[in-house]
Amino acid sequence: MANTVNMSQYNEQAERRKQERRKQGKMRLSTATVTRDNRETIGNVTVPDYRIRCTDINVFYGDKHAIRNITLDIGRHEIIAMIGPSGCGKSTFLRCLNRMNDTIENCRVTGKIMMDNQDINDKSIDVVPLRAKVGMVFQKPNPFPKSVYENIAFGPRIHGLAKDKVELDEIVVTSLKRAGLWEEVKDRLDQPGTSLSGGQQQRLCIARTIAVNPEVILMDEPCSALDPIATTKIEELMDQLCADYSIVIVTHSMQQAARVSHRTAYFHLGDLIEVGATEQIFTKPVHQLTEDYITGRFG
Amino acid sequence: MSTRLEGHTFRRFDGELYHLHTEILQMAGLVYEQVQMALESFQQQKLDSIRVINEREAQVDALEKSIDSVITEVLAKRGPVARDLRTIMAFSKAVTDLERLGDEAAKIAYIAATMYNNDGNNPSNYLLRDVGIMGKLACVLLKEAIEILDMLDLERAEKLLNSHDDIEEEFQAGLRRLATYVLEDARNVGHIINVVLAMKSLVRIGEHARNLVEYVVYMVSGEDIRHTESVQA
Amino acid sequence: MNELVPPKPKTIDLVNASLAKRRASERLFRGIGLISIMMALMFLFMLFYSIVSKGYTAFRQTHIQLEVNFDQQLLDPAATRHHDVLSSADYSSLVKASLSKLFPDVTSRNEKRQLHGLVSAGAAYQLRDMVMADPALLGQTLQLWVPADDDVDMLIKGHIDRDGPETERRLRDVQIAWLDQLAAQEKLSLKFNMLFFANGDSREPELAGIWGALMGSIYTLLVTLLLSFPMGVATAVYLEEFAPKSKWVDLIEVNINNLAAVPSIIFGLLGLAVFINFMSFPRSAPLVGGLVLAFMTLPTIIIASRGALKSVPPSIREAALGVGASKMQTVYFHVLPLATPGMLTGTIIGMARALGETAPLLMIGMVAFIVDIPSDIFDPATALPVQIYLWADSPERAFVERTSAAIIVLLGFLFVMNALAIILRKKFERRW
Lengths: 299, 233, 432
Hints:
The structure holds 3 protein chains of 3 kinds. By secondary structure, chain A is an alpha/beta fold. In chain A, 38% of the residues lie in helices and 22% in strands. Chain A folds into 2 domains: 1-30; 33-294, Rossmann fold (3-Layer(aba) Sandwich), CATH 3.40.50. Chain A is globular and about 75 Å long. Chain C has a 3-stranded antiparallel beta sheet with strand order 2-1-3. Chain C has helices spanning 11-55, 72-75, 83-88, 92-102, 109-116, 122-133, 150-156, 173-184, 194-198, 211-242, 247-259, 264-278, 286-310, 314-322, 327-356, 359-363, 384-393, 398-429; strands at residues 60-69, 141-147, 188-192. The A-B interface holds A 3, 6-7, 10-11, 14, 17-18, 21-22, 25-32, 254-255, 258, 281-285, 288, 291-292, 294-299 and B 2-5, 7-10, 13, 25-26, 29-30, 32-33, 37, 52, 56, 79-87, 147, 150-154, 219-222.
């Protein structure tokens, strides 16, 4: 049994050396070559065929500097995911893209957000057509307390997208079909949207958004209130929608970001830390903070 | 801190990765000993080691199964990403290589058993010379590979992968030499075939050892350097 | 190491130990709550009991049956059937004649006056109205029930002590004897008091009615509602949804909240100074009353409406804004419908307060004695609470029950208003 002794000796030895190595802190396992203190954005923030180009975005809530110098492109037909711990400014950034921050008192946004050769952050821009172009889906499903039909028809009606009732009906049906909700609600269009299940409500909200036929869809944690099945349905829907729209999604679920997005942006305390192809971010992140966050080693 | 396997907010994940690493090293230790024993049996006619090796084979298989199940479990429960994902992938592949290493060792021991089990017509030491040289080289390489796997040392790993492949060279030289023995005396052919088979196994052992190191490189740096000629140091 | 150290007590033991005390305080609290509700119910019951028990008798009025001969000679000797002639004819002598026929042996002037005093002055008006409505009655003889005098009414309802000394009674012994005689002939009976619901105010309790005050209240409240609801809702919507946060808005907010607490009589003074003295609006008119009460109600409605708007979840606004609705569309299509029930509740509370308000109306002259039923918001009128106040002040015994009856009517009005509000709210709520 000399072999057994050998083996245990070997193990002991290995353990001891490991401890020594650990003390020296030499055992690097990380691809992260950028240290935690660095706040410059890592990775390529631009894409050649951009839909929205944000340059040096800063957001202040009163005295609080919520996000700092963010420069990022939103590509055409891409799903870009924003991840990061709570309060990192990802939702704030999202809300800059359709000027939803306007509704918040003493919120100030500086920087340039170029879309169709217009700076949409300019105060002179009318937010109504902007929001028709950049739709938004919110964290909590928030259907209007009206019928399913009215929920969808509201947007097209206020924007005058339908000439008559027939056209409006068509828009409603198409939107519901695209949102994968038609089969479930076709018999109860006159029932309140709030009577649907959570996942259906969220898809109703997505249908409401695409009924206006926007070019960009912003999603602020669209699945955080949903069960996994409903989540999967929404993700499948996003995957289909990105053929026609650019989708920006803020999510707390890194798995979701990994599943659906093409690019991922990691935010940390108001800074855009790292941007990259989702595969790269989730296999070999460059910034230490990104790696810590996605591997669950935060704090 | 975060450059290691540990540091997860959910500490049990640390424990699982650490446990995996330890089991892999344990398996590696077993395999290394098997290779050594196989070589001993080949060169010193220790025919009883084949029995020991077979017993060990069972242990290695058990470890392989255990490690595989832990890996599946971690994948299912933790959804590892980034370095955790690479670690799991590397471990998973390392297990396969280690298992093959064990097989090769068993093969060498089996060849030894057939070679010495032929009523006194033992091969001459000339024939065994190459196996001895290659065996030593393979053992050194394997030991170094296991240590790299233990330390997850990228520097040493790259050095090893950039080093010249001595085993392959020895194999080619050995083949040429053995060919002269065949020409010299055709009765040696039986032994020489066995010797060549053992040498081929040793070459494979070297390849598997290099694979282990490649996995470490992937794990640490995220670079997949398999099937590339050399690594830029 | 020391085994004498007592083991750390288990949480469940601590919980169990404190349980009795916790239960006891819970029971105590529940008990106090129950007692206070019982007390409230008791007081409410006492209030209702005292009002209803005093007031219900006013809904029935003693009537006397008379055989009335519509004597053409007396009423319209020239048979002109002319309106003026018929209206100015002496109907009271018909009543007197009928009474004399019932009691032929009453001859002395004094006794005759006492006999005629049994029947209300309103009997003559009743006859006149009948003839005016149908001149063909002339020359006919009819059995009619006419209202008795309030003293008779009081006697029949038992509010006058029959056996007391005659000098302290408002009815002489002989009058009581006649009444007994009438009662024996079944010519005396309690009938439903139509006059109470059809007449305006009167000095004669048996003729005094609530209709004038009710109409006054309705007109006043109409003016109040039409002014304060749209204004209040618009103010609330502006302050809540559109106004930028600034010192000025804060100041306005504080002032609105303070206005809600200003004594109502101040609003009356304001109305007197601005509407009557300065703008020369008619005195005692529901228009001015409505304006004043609208001022008084506005803060209540604004505060309630703002509360209702605040309680609309912001997610709805975000949803509407998110699909590109303008601020106005968001408010109009989504926020207002959801806030309507709350706004209605606030409005009804304000209106109920306005309905019960007296003080400001006193200041603008709606306290006057007004007999005529107002026909629009410019006619002089009084309001229900003012009428109650006036009657409560009157010396006649019969006004006591009328006061209570008027309170019942006021409460009924309130009840109807609240019911209407609940129905409206339910209707709006059903639209989700």
